[in-house]
């Protein structure tokens, strides 16, 4: 499995600055003061650089939601019981969740992947069944995953990216569902950024002070037990990660290898990005941070990745909701780039005239 992953990683290259420069030249020729559309212009240039085409289309969009459970919930770190994970998966499939509403707004398809839910769904045509295990183990007592499970989940994410791009998807977004998953995400944030647990751990679904302090103690206990290292990203993922985080990390790698943009959601998806960056540093060229979550560790993670969020909307739902909004902004930037007239086409004098 490591050989397969290495092959994908070898396909990920930094963006060619020549494409970015050509995009900026076209943006400067459009009927507007130079730079007047701000970050929309940045998004358009980035999209051109990623696709390696002067006038790339952006039509087909997917939000892929990876769902999994977490054994660390047994430590009492979440405000919700574990069965909410599978109940929410069913809600996604019925179209009744926040991500469904916002994906419809963005004109994007929602694909739901069972990568590790502790539930037998039976045959549901709309559900993508790639279950690696029935959730992770309790990282406070033993490794959350075996190394083989972590690698398998990474490759599931790669597979989802390859399937999407093979059908002509132009832009992708990563979402998550998994009760308790802010705990492994905070653990990974501490491992990869080097920041203390207290700096990167928030309140998840809204836990009170005593549970928050207990959550930090659980994470510190897990880190002391396993000693995960950023130098061994797969090992760190196995020790204190989760299956949906691993799936998102692989999804990022596969998306970058296919030269497509990946719009990140919040805290959980960005934990996956930390793992992906450790495996292939050039993936950050392909990432767009849709928003900054209210989770305190999220800004630390974004700073580490060198990403500037598009929105600060006080969001903390997950599911890919922020990423769906990010897709709408990316598409807006591309439409400006492709559809506005140049000064020459419109017969308008530019500022150099």
Can you describe what's shown?
By secondary structure, the protein is an alpha/beta fold. The chain folds into two domains: 2-56 and 338-346, 5,6-Dimethylbenzimidazole Phosphoribosyltransferase, Chain: A, domain 1 (Orthogonal Bundle); 61-333, Nicotinate-nucleotide-dimethylbenzimidazole phosphoribosyltransferase (CobT), large domain (Rossmann fold, 3-Layer(aba) Sandwich), CATH 3.40.50.10210. Helices cover 51% and strands 9% of the residues. The protein has 15 helices and six strands. The protein has helices spanning 2-10, 17-29, 38-51, 84-94, 98-106, 147-166, 182-193, 197-200, 209-226, 233-240, 243-257, 267-279, 296-305, 321-339, 343-346, and strands spanning 61-68, 109-116, 127-129, 171-177, 262-264, 287-289. The protein has a six-stranded parallel β-sheet. α12 links the parallel β5 and β6. It is globular.
The total tally of domains equals 2
The separation of the N and C termini measures 60 Å
Kindly report the average pLDDT value. Answer: 96
Portion of residues in helices?
40-55%
- Globally, the shape reads globular
Poorly predicted regions are none
Name given to the CATH architecture of the largest domain:
3-Layer(aba) Sandwich
Q: Give, in spatial order, the strands making up the sheet with the most strands.
A: 3-2-1-4-5-6
Into which percentage range does the β-strand content fall?
5-15%
CATH superfamily of the largest domain: Nicotinate-nucleotide-dimethylbenzimidazole phosphoribosyltransferase (CobT), large domain
Structural class: alpha/beta
What's the order of the H and E elements? Answer: HHHEHHEEHEHHHHHEHEHHH
Q: Roughly how many Å is the radius of gyration?
A: 20 Å
CATH fold category name of the largest domain: Rossmann fold
Count all strands and give the number. 6
Largest sheet: 6 strands, parallel
Report the total helices.
15
Q: What is the CATH domain class of the largest domain? A: Alpha Beta
């Amino acid at each position: 499995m490591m050989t397969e992953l290495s092959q994908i990683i070898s396909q990920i290259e930094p963006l060619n600055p020549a494409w970015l420069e050509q995009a900026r030249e076209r943006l400067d020729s459009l009927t507007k003061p130079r730079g007047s559309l701000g970050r929309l212009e940045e998004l358009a240039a980035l999209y051109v650089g990623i696709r390696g085409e002067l006038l790339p289309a952006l039509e087909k969009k997917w939000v892929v939601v990876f769902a999994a459970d977490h054994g660390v919930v047994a430590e009492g770190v979440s405000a919700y019981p574990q069965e909410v994970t599978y109940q929410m998966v069913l809600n996604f499939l019925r179209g009744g969740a926040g991500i469904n509403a916002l994906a419809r707004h963005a004109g994007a398809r929602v694909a739901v992947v069972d990568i590790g839910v502790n539930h037998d769904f039976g045959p549901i045509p709309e559900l993508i069944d790639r279950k690696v295990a029935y959730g992770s183990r309790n990282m406070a007592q033993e490794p959350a995953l075996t190394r083989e499970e972590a690698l398998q989940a990474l490759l599931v994410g790669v597979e989802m990216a390859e399937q999407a791009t093979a059908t002509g998807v132009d832009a992708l977004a990563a979402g998550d569902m998994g009760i308790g998953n802010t705990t492994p995400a905070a653990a990974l944030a501490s491992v990869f950024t080097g920041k203390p647990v207290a700096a990167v751990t928030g309140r998840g679904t809204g836990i009170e002070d005593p549970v928050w302090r207990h959550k930090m103690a659980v994470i510190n206990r897990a880190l002391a037990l396993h000693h995960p290292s950023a130098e061994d990203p797969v090992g760190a993922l196995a020790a204190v990660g989760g299956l949906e985080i691993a799936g998102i990390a692989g999804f990022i790698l596969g998306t970058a290898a296919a030269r497509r943009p990946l719009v990140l959601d919040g805290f959980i998806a960005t934990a996956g990005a930390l793992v992906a960056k450790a495996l292939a540093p050039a993936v950050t060229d392909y990432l767009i941070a849709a928003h900054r979550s209210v989770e305190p560790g999220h800004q630390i993670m974004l700073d580490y990745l060198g990403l500037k969020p598009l929105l600060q909307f006080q969001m903390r739902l997950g599911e890919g909701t922020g990423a769906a909004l990010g897709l709408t902004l990316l598409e807006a930037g591309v439409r400006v780039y492709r559809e506005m007239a140049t000064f020459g086409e419109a017969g308008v004098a530019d500022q150099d005239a």
